[in-house]
Amino acid sequence: MSEVIVITSGKGGVGKTTTCANIGTGLACQGKKVVLIDTDIGLRNLDVVMGLENRIVYNLVDVVEGNCRVKQALIKDKRYPGLYLLPCAQTRDKTAVNPEQMKKLTAQLKEQFDYILLDCPAGIEQGFQNAIAGADRAIVVTTPEVSAIRDADRIIGLLHAYEVGRIDLIVNRLRNDMIKRGDMMSVADVVDILSVDLLGAVYDDEAVVVSTNHGEPLVCGNSVAGRAYMNISNRILGQEVPLLDLEKEKSVWFRFTGIFQKL
Amino acid sequence: MRIKSLFHKKKSKEVAKDRLKILLISDRINCSPETMEMIKKDIAKVLSRYIQIDPGKMEIEVSKRKINVFW
Prior knowledge:
Helices cover 45% and strands 17% of the residues of chain A. By secondary structure, chain A is α/β, with parallel strands linked by helices. Chain A has one domain (3-262): P-loop containing nucleotide triphosphate hydrolases (Rossmann fold), CATH 3.40.50. Chain B has 3 helices and no strands. Chain B has a domain at 11-50. Classes of the chains: A alpha/beta, B mainly alpha. The A-B interface holds A 145-146, 149-150, 153-154, 157-158, 160-161, 179, 181-186, 189, 193 and B 11-14, 16-17, 19-21, 23-24, 27-28, 66, 69, 71.
């Protein structure tokens, strides 16, 4: 029972690539065989976020054009057993691949992998259509900002029109202090507006930047964002995991530091 | 009025939500808020020809059915 999941957003810079890298790694940590496919031809980034940029030999376009076998283009992540990356070409453009070819490729990969994660480019042009062609389900990433939510709504409409089986939402870069002040929409507000199933909420976390700097996914660490991504991975695996409650965590922390102050 | 608004300032989140709701309706049916307003006025006009209505109290909701989605 393998699944092809496309991670998309419409708007750029909301955290598609980070989400893709971390969910993929999270699933691999749970013992699944996972392949991440970067479909952002011409602007590839998943390789650097994963820290695998020095190991690219062949890419997606080579595979599709038949210059190499799929196996030759797959980069095995040595840190996590069962995790592979299929990078895309940097010197070509989105028209180098068509939706039919993507369908064929994902069908082929389904035989070997449990999860195939597609990192979708921003926009709704050919790159988007390539990415969703073979997808069984979609994860829409958004931030609690007007522009990102508007684009997410458009994307959700398109995903419905293309009859993608299941659509889930991840709200990224939430800031608890701003939500409490009433200066940022909460997860509930965003879900209410977009009326789509919620898969997870990720709080804004400096650890994301640090992990990208190192080229190491943070899902296996203990940061707030890392744990949120691990919860999302577990939800994809069918487990029921409650949303992270920052307030509760804070109170535990205060209790902890409170003890030291008393001493 | 100004003093009142000073005390009762709308949170920016509420502003964002209100703007988004109107924006998404017009995005979804592919028409601008002005056009929506004109449609509302026209509907009220036609209805008032036959029945007594208060256009100020009238609410028109646009919803989308799953079938026949044209984007």
